[in-house]
Amino acid sequence: MEERRCAGCGDAFWRRPQVPDQEYCGKAECRRARRRLWQRTKRQHDADYRDNQARAQRAWTGDNRAYWRTYRSGHPEYAQANREKQHDRDRRRREANLAKMASSKPLSSVPSGTYLLVPRDAQNLAKMDSLMVEITVLSER
């Protein structure tokens, strides 16, 4: 047998001879962490598993419609904390959508003037497909 470090808690443990690739010790929280990692990986890579999990979630929700209402009424501190967090998320979302003139950058750094537009691959400036244009900046902002 070989002593290893647990990927969940970091404690040393002896691996079981039946499980040569064992990475987690036998503590309940470490077993739970191993299962969560397995489920997360399975959902990311297996569409059938992901669909089955979604169907099971919808079925459970359909059978337990009052679960969250009952939970919130039995845990008022949770409900209050959730309201405060939602208020903060809403405030940040509103602030992120505000147009702030001081923070906006100019659209172009090209000054007003007359310019010769030439296709990028042109070797000679006297080509027929070049254009003379005048650009006038109307507003700095």
Provide structural commentary:
It is a single chain. The chain has 141 residues and is of the alpha+beta class. The chain has four helices and four strands. The chain has helices spanning 28-45, 47-63, 67-74, 76-96, and strands at 3-5, 12-14, 113-117, 131-135. The strands form two sheets. It has a two-stranded antiparallel sheet. The chain has a two-stranded antiparallel sheet with strand order 3-4. Helix 1 (28-45) crosses helix 2. The longest helix has 21 residues, at 76-96. The relative contact order is 0.06.
What attributes does this structure have?
alpha+beta, two-stranded antiparallel ribbon, 4 strands, 45% helix, elongated
For this structure, the quaternary state is single chain
Strand content: 5-15%
Number of helices: 4
Structural class: alpha+beta
**Main β-sheet description:** 2 strands, antiparallel
Query: How confident is the prediction overall: mean pLDDT?
Result: 87
Which stretches are poorly predicted, pLDDT < 50 over at least 5 residues? none
The value of Rg in angstroms is: 31 Å
Shape: elongated
Distance between the termini: 72 Å
Strand order of the largest sheet: 1-2
The sequence of SSEs as H and E is: EEHHHHEE
SS elements, strand count: 4
The share of residues in helices is 40-55%
Write a brief caption for the model:
The protein has helices at residues 28-45, 47-63, 67-74, 76-96; strands at residues 3-5, 12-14, 113-117, 131-135. With 141 residues, the chain is an alpha+beta fold. It has a two-stranded antiparallel ribbon with strand order 1-2. A two-stranded antiparallel ribbon has the order 3-4.
